[in-house]
C-alpha cells in the first residue's frame, strides 16, 4: 500500500512521529514544572510513559526523515513487524497512563475538591499535561493502526 498516508518513510509518517514527540515532550515539561507531581503515582507513571513515547517516536521520526532524504522504502515485513509491536506497546502504555492521570485530575477537581481546598496544588498544570498525553496517545494510536494495516496487507 504505497499510497497510505502515515506509512513509514513518508511525510505523513514523519508528521505523526513529530507530533507524538512534541506532545509527549510537552506533557513531560508541564508535569515536570508542576509542584509535587512526584507524590502521585499516576503522574509519575504518566511521565515515565511519555518518556518512553518520546524516545520511541523521536527515533522513528529520525528514521522517517532519513528515509525521505535518501528515498528509502521502509515497508518490509520485518521492519513493519517491529514498528507494529513498538507502536502498540507505546500506545497501550500511554493510554493507560493518560487515563489514570485523567482519573486523578477529575478526582482532585470534582470529587474531593482538592483544588479548592489546597490552592497551592497546580491542578491546571496537571490537567494540561494530561491533555497533552491524550493528544500524544491519539497520534500514537493512529500510527499503530496504520502499521497494523500495512502489515496485514502483506
From TrEMBL:
The keyword Translocase does not apply. The chain crosses the membrane at residues 20-38, 45-68, 88-108, 128-152. InterPro entries: CASP_dom, CASPL-5. Residues 7-139 form the Casparian strip membrane protein domain. Keywords: Cell membrane, Membrane, Transmembrane, Transmembrane helix. Pfam families: CASP_dom (PF04535). It is a multi-pass membrane protein. It is found in: Cell membrane. Its main location: membrane. GO terms for cellular component: plasma membrane. Coiled coil: none annotated. Homodimer and heterodimers. Belongs to the Casparian strip membrane proteins (CASP) family. This is CASP-like protein.
Amino acid at each position: 500500500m504505497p499510497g497510505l498516508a502515515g506509512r513509514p518513510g513518508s511525510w505523513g509518517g514523519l508528521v505523526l512521529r513529530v507530533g507524538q514527540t512534541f506532545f509527549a515532550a510537552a506533557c513531560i515539561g508541564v508535569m515536570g514544572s508542576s509542584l509535587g507531581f512526584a507524590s502521585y503515582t499516576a503522574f509519575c507513571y504518566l511521565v515515565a510513559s511519555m518518556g518512553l513515547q518520546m524516545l520511541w517516536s523521536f527515533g522513528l521520526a529520525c528514521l522517517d526523515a532519513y528515509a525521505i532524504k535518501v528515498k528509502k522504502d521502509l515497508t518490509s515485513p520485518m521492519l513493519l513487524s517491529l514498528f507494529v509491536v513498538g507502536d502498540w506497546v507505546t500506545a497501550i502504555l500511554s493510554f493507560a497512563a493518560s487515563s489514570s492521570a485523567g482519573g486523578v485530575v477529575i478526582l482532585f477537581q470534582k470529587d474531593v475538591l482538592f483544588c479548592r481546598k489546597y490552592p497551592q496544588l497546580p491542578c491546571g498544570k496537571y490537567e494540561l499535561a494530561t491533555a497533552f498525553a491524550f493528544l500524544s496517545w491519539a497520534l500514537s494510536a493512529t500510527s499503530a493502526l496504520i502499521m497494523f494495516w500495512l502489515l496485514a496487507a502483506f
